[in-house]
Structures are given as C-alpha cells and as structure tokens.
Amino acid sequence: MSAAPERTAGGREGNLRREGDRRREGAGGAEQDLEDQGNLGNGRDGAPPTGGLTRRGLAVATGTAAAVIVATTAGQAVPALAPLDLLAPRRPDLGPQGLPVNRTARAARVAVAARDPGYRLEVVGTRRVGYDLAQLHALPSHTVRLPITCVEGWSADATWHGPRLRDLLDAALIPVDATIRVESLEAHGGYRASEVRPAHARDPLTLLATGLNGADLELDHGYPARLIAPDRPGVLQTKWVHRVVLL
Amino acid sequence: MSGDGDGDTGARADADAPAPAGAGLSVGGFALRVVLVAAGLAALGYGVDGLLTMPRATRPSNAAAWLIGGIVVHDVLLVPATMLAGFTLSRLVRAPYRAVVQGALIVSGAVALMSLPLWRGYGGSVDNPSVNPLPYGRNLAIVLGAVWAGAALLMIGRAVRARRTGPG
Amino acid sequence: MARMLSGRLPDPPAAVRRGPPWAGAFPSTLHDQRVASLLGIALGITFGTCFLTGLVSHFMQHPPNWLSWPSRPVWLYRVTQGLHVTTGLASVPLLLVKLWTVYPRLWERPPVRSVTHALERLTLVPLIAGSIFQLATGIANIAQWYRFHFFFTVTHYWVA
C-alpha cells in the first residue's frame, strides 16, 4: 500500500498532529476507524494515517523489542550486563563454585569412575607417563584466569589451577608440533574426547586444571582433572580427563 | 543462520523486490539475478544433501516436521491471533493511545516468545540447577512491567499534549 | 530462455485477479514495502552476524585440516558465540514483524504470474521455514529443552 498523497505533501509535524487529532475526533464508523488517525510516526516518514501504529512506530516498537531482548539476555555472556540478566538460560555466577555447568557428572555417567581413589592420569607419547592423584597434585601448579564459553552462548570468567598441559606433554616426549587427543572417563558420547592442536596444546595458558576458584574442582566441573584452554568452545574443554595421547 | 551468506541473498533480494520477476529487467540485472538464484539453489541443495546424508543425527522426518510445523504455526496460529488482537484493539482502545498499546504488545509478545521455554519451566534437568536457574515467571513480569510502565508514560505524555493542544 | 521464464501466464479469471481473499482483509498500512525492507536490512545484519558466528563455531568444533584456530585472543570465541546467540534472539521480533509486513503477499492474486514468479515464491518456502526453524530450535536448545529428536548441532548446521 502506498502513502496517502495528502500526507506526503509535507508540512510541519505540529500541524500534522493537530490535523490528526481533529480527524480522530470526527472518526466514527468502523471503516474510518481503521483507515484514519496517524500518530507516533508524526507523518515525518510520509506515513499514512492508520488505526494505530505508523510505519515508524512499528519500526520503533520492533527495535525496542530487539533491544529489550538483548538487554535481558546478553548478561549471560557480557559481565557488565549481568545485573540485567533476567531472561537468559544461564547466569554466569550461578552454579557449583560460582560457575555454571553444562553437563553434569551424572548425565555423563562418570560419577563413580571420577571418584575412584585409584584414578590414574596417563600421558602417552613416545614415552608413557602415569600419575596417581597425589602425583598429579604434586606437579608444579599454575594459576590462569580464563573465560569458559559454552556453545549455548553463556560464558564466564574463572580462575583455574593445575599443571600446564605442555609440561605434561614434554614429560611424555610428545613433539611440539603434534596434535594430541584428550580423553574423558566417559564411555560413550560425541564429546568424550577432543583433539588439541599445537596452538592450544602448547599455549602457556592451557592447563589440565585440578582446581577452580581457589578450591579443588568439583565433580560436575570435571574432577579430578579437566582441560581448560584459551579461545576454545566449552564442549571441547574435556572434563574428567584420564588419558592424553599423541595422535 | 538460515543459509544467509551466499545462500539466500538471492531469495532475500527477491523478497524485497518491489516488482515481480521479469518485468523490464536489464541484461545485467537479469544476469545478476541468475547468479544469485543459482547460488541460492546451490546452497539449498548443499543443505538438503547434508540433512539427508547424516540421517542418524538429523532424523530427516523429525527435522522436516519441525520445518513445516514452524511455518504452519506461524501462518495459521500466530498471524490470525495477531490480526484478532489488532481488530480487538481497534474497537477497545482510542486512537491516540492505540499505537502505544500496539507497540507495547509487540515488545511483550516478542519477549515472552523468546523466553517461552524458561517461564513455562520447560528444559533443564533436575541434577543440574545451573541450567535455567532464575525465577523466570517473576523476571518476565518485571520486564513486562517495565515495558508497560514505559508505555503508560508515553500515553500520559500524549494525553498532556492533547490537552495542551486543546479539544478541537 | 529469459523470455520463456518471464513470460506472463494467461490472465486468470477476474474474480481471482486482484488482492487478498476479500477487499480490505488487510487494512493495516503496515503491510508495507518500506517497513519490510527496513526490517529486511536489520534482519540481514542480525541473521548475517548470526550465520557467520555460527560458521565460526561450527568450524572451531570441526576444523578441517587446513584450518587451525589461534589460541589468542582468549576471548575470541566468547565474543563470537555470545554474538551468535544474542543476534539470534534479537532476530525473533525482527523476523516476525518482517513476515507480518509481507503476509498479504501470501494471498496475492493471481497466485502465480509467471514461471519465475512461481519459482520465486516456491523458494521462499524453505527460506522462511528455515528461518523459523533455526530460531525456534535454537531457543529450545539454549534452554536445554530437547523436544526435537535430532542432534541439534548437526541439523542446525545443515539447515543453515
């Protein structure tokens, strides 16, 4: 439908609005009710008088809707907007140890295996190196501050503690340009293992974390050890790690 | 999403083109159109092929049901409901305020729809309280309250302005 | 070829020649080309961003051999994935209002004017179905509401 000619002719906003008001008073029948009476758009965009929203009004309302949605959900990823995070599926600070969990140990069916005191971490390169829990915790520990980002859109900063992955790789004589696979205790599922290429495997910020925010990792965050690397999707930050192998 | 990049540029352009195809296109325009259409169809074919070659993961029949279901729900449910709401509004709310009410309804509807699984309590799992952890019913009420408070302010502004202009 | 495609189909009977099902069925002036194209631009930006960041996410998770993602900046994936979900959610009102503005054209008479016109209308079906599908299943997925039986990420990619 095209703009009504008398509206496109121009004129100052005030005049148009008063004219609109007068028309409104006179509007009686249903037909006119629907066709008449412009506002919100003020006729600036040449909007024809309508029963309600003008085109500009519609654009403003739609833009407002998008803005309200962004404002009330973006807080799940943007720390500054966290107080407004009212309608997002996650809150970056809600979860065990102040961090959300995507997949629990129970859902991954590793709760028993991960708690086993006989747990051993194996790093298999040219040499095979094994660590029990005590040895794992005796390794030189580093602390890094890295965000974890889930493919579902939420992300949160956290402080991670544990040995550097590259130190473990060196101990097993894994070459610096090698791609490795990090394997979880999970028996099944598409995310039970992930490949780590050299850029991430050799990054000094990449840890096989055993601690989170000043305490031991909780089961749902990947106890006894999990991968945490910079700039990597959450599903590939493998939890409940028990093997690292050279590919 | 939805094959944007190379894919539906052609289709999107078509959707926005004021004139139906064929009417007085230059040779260049026609060639461009052919290229865009070909690119769009290629992307479509690539996607459909992908969907069909990984049936274990994509469950083509279920995916098709969701694809068609979405469009049916929109055209048969959402649009008539919106029309009905618009019609009702045109009878119930006087003109200077109707636009504001309509605008507020658009915002409310969009916000409620995008957060529907949350305030309806769908999704999540009992052993993971960090998924959907908030009181979403209350939060939706707060957000919609703010939206309608804004709308009320706008309407008051309009009423004041109308009074100042005087009846006429 | 061009002539054949753009040739007009024979005129249909006068009864179905014009307009929506009945006169004045779509009285709102908001079913309007200019609003539609304005929303189209906005939607192009949000969907475009959403699509590109979605590709980033897909190829980060399934990198081909020639592609190695950097480990810096450490927040890169945080930004792209945050944008992906946020622009997707913001697209909800944009898409719905956009569809609303063009809805009368669904009832356009005659339904098809030429072969190209018919093809054009036909190709819009998967486009619109795909758009609604991606938004609806995306919203369900981030709430971990698995009502669909397909594997989300794979299907999400192929539909895109």
Report on this structure.
The complex is a heterotrimer of chains A (247), B (168) and C (160). Chain A is built from nine helices and eleven strands. By secondary structure, chain A is of the alpha+beta class. Chain A folds into two domains: 5-84, no CATH class; 96-246, Alpha-Beta Complex (Sulfite Oxidase, Chain A, domain 2). The termini of chain A are far apart. Chain B is mainly alpha-helical and 168 residues long. Chain B contains seven helices and no strands. Chain C starts with a helix and ends with a helix. Chains in contact: A-B, A-C, B-C. The interface between A and B is large, with 47 and 42 residues.
Secondary-structure map with pairings?
The complex is a heterotrimer of chains A (247), B (168) and C (160).
Chain A lengths: L4 H4 L4 H14 L3 H6 L19 H19 L31 H4 L2 H5 L4 E5 L3 E5 H6 L3 E8 L5 E8 L2 H7 L8 E5 L8 E4 L1 H4 L5 E3 L1 E2 L2 E2 L9 E3 L12 E6 L1
Chain B lengths: L3 H13 L10 H27 L1 H4 L1 H33 L2 H20 L1 H4 L16 H30 L3
Helix pairs in contact in B: 1-2, 5-7
Chain C lengths: L1 H5 L26 H29 L14 H27 L12 H28 L9 H8 L1
Explain briefly what this protein structure is.
The complex is a heterotrimer of chains A (247), B (168) and C (160). By secondary structure, chain A is an alpha+beta fold. Chain A has helices at residues 5-8, 13-26, 30-35, 55-73, 105-108, 111-115, 133-138, 165-171, 198-201; strands at 120-124, 128-132, 142-149, 155-162, 180-184, 193-196, 207-209, 211-212, 215-216, 226-228, 241-246.
Helix content of chain A: 25-40%
CATH homologous superfamily heading of the largest domain in chain A: Oxidoreductase, molybdopterin-binding domain
Give the termini distance of chain A in whole angstroms.
64 Å
Share of residues in helices of chain B: over 70%
User: How many beta-strand elements of chain B?
Assistant: 0
* Count of separate structural domains of chain A: 2
Proportion in β-strands of chain A: 15-25%
Quantity of strands of chain A, as a count: 11
> What strand order characterises the main sheet of chain A?
2-1-11-5-6
Shape of chain A: elongated
Q: What Rg of chain B do the Cα atoms give? A: 23 Å
- Low-confidence parts of chain B lasting 5 or more residues at pLDDT below 50? 1-23
Overall average residue pLDDT of chain A:
80
CATH class of the largest domain in chain A: Alpha Beta
Kindly report how far apart the N and C termini of chain B lie: 52 Å
Named CATH architecture of the largest domain in chain A: Alpha-Beta Complex
Overall SS class of chain B: mainly alpha
